[in-house]
Amino acid sequence: MDASVVPVVIRRPATPDLAHLVSSISFYRERGVGLAGFRHAAPLALPLLVNLGTPFRIALGRRPKHEDGRPSFAAGLFPGPVLIESDGRAECVQVDFTPLGAYRFYGGAVPDLTARIVGLEDVLGRAGESLAAQVAEAAGWQRRFEIVEDFVLRRAVHEPSPAIASALDILWRSAGSARVADIAADIGWSRRHFTRRFQNEIGVAPKMLAQMLRFHRACRLVRSEPVTGWAAVAAEAGYADQAHLARDFRVFCGETPTGWAARMECADPRLLRDAGG
After folding, report:
1. pLDDT in tens, 143-163
2. Contacts 24+ apart (CB under 8 A), 122-128
3. DSSP 3-state assignment of 118?
4. Distances (CA, A) of 275 to 115, 174, 224
5. Reported confidence tier of residue 113, pLDDT bands at 50, 70, 90
6. Which end of the chain is more exposed for a tag (fewer CB within 10 A), N or C?
């Protein structure tokens, strides 16, 4: 691609103050060439996007249509592919919340965002409108990052229950291999009660999150090491067999494993948000 039309992408890792809340904050600006059929596979981050240009067209689990144009918005976890298109004039600042950071920021509203894309003013009220206006008026990405970071820190006042925070940490560190029944037993809750409490704070059931984490573990293995065969990847990631892995690829990214791998070879790495692309 002509370098003069390659989009500008500036991604800032979380500062120490934000490390427990967000995975990154990024600035994106297109220069005449937009996205066509771009997809994120079952993202593990919950985005808050302040739109500065032509709205992206975004749809969950299907190709977006003209009416799927999304101005500034927030979204929750979605166990499937997120498809994105743009017209070459898109520009935005995006915050990627961790699941626990999303709870600290949105509190009990997190489940309302699951598998949904919600206008910023609908989830944050006038504060969301004010944030969008401040970011739009600011000069330069550095000042815009400062405005967003200050906004996030001031609103991240909701404390998750210690049991759910600990359970999420166990699932995350085990890349989804920890057994949900064992985690519930260690807490001293029934599996049913644990599942309900987890879903109320994180937005998806612990079994579903474990499944998403296992999928991303498989993706990381393929992207970080030479592929030694999908059966070996499935075994290393904790799948029962290769067919089990192939089912998750169809569910989470709408592709076969080989189709996903071929897409990754051509993808702009600056646009990938996690191992699944």
Report:
1. 999 999 999 999 999 999 999
2. 123/74, 124/74, 127/151, 127/155, 128/72
3. strand
4. 20, 16, 10
5. very high
6. N
Query: Which helix (H) or strand (E) element contains residue 247?
Result: helix 242-253
Query: What backbone phi and psi angles, to 5 degrees, belong to 83?
Result: -105, 135
> 161-193 burial by CB neighbour count: b if 16+ within 10 A, else e?
eebbbebbebbbebbbebebeebbeebebebee
Q: What does the alpha-carbon distance between residue 213 and residue 203 come to, in Å, rounded to a whole number?
A: 15
- pLDDT for 1 equals 67
| Stated pTM of the model | 0.94
192-215 residue pLDDT tens: 999 999 999 999 999 999 999 999
Q: CB-hemisphere CA count at 13 Å for 193? A: 7
Assigned token pair, 35: 């996205």
- Measured in Å, how far apart are the chain's first and last C-alpha atoms? 20
